[in-house]
Write a structure and sequence with these properties.
The protein is α+β, with helices and mostly antiparallel strands. It is built from three helices and five strands.
């Protein structure tokens, strides 16, 4: 979709949408063009905190929230988005939830240690 008319502003960049069936109709959605796989700034920030501060052991919901310094609502929206995108794995531990980077959980095919020299 493009919008060439912008009063008193520069032209907006094109917006990529896909026609997606919904019940007996259809909608224009960003889901069909791969935008869901891209991370927002807050998602990148929280993933970095999880990776750098907690490593392969991951963190509980409270530990990660405190380490992130994000507002409560932003934190929950961000961690839920990371889980739904498959970037973070949530595991129930009693009444708590532990979050581990999907890379450390071996769900992404990225090496987690250097190869040994021969």
């Amino acid at each position: 979709m493009e919008n060439t008319k912008q009063k008193d502003h520069e032209e907006s960049p094109d917006l990529m949408l896909a026609l997606t069936p919904l019940a007996d109709s259809c909608i224009l959605s960003h889901e069909g063009v791969g935008l869901l796989s891209q991370l927002t700034a807050s998602e990148n920030e929280l993933l970095t905190v999880l990776w750098d501060s907690f490593g392969t052991g991951g963190a509980t919901k409270t530990e990660l929230k405190e380490a992130s310094d994000m507002p409560k609502s932003s934190y929950y929206r961000t961690i839920n988005a990371l889980v739904s995108k498959g970037k973070v794995v949530a595991t129930k531990e009693g009444r708590s939830t532990r979050y581990v980077s999907a890379v450390h959980n071996h769900q992404l095919e990225i090496p987690t240690s250097p190869t040994e020299s021969q």
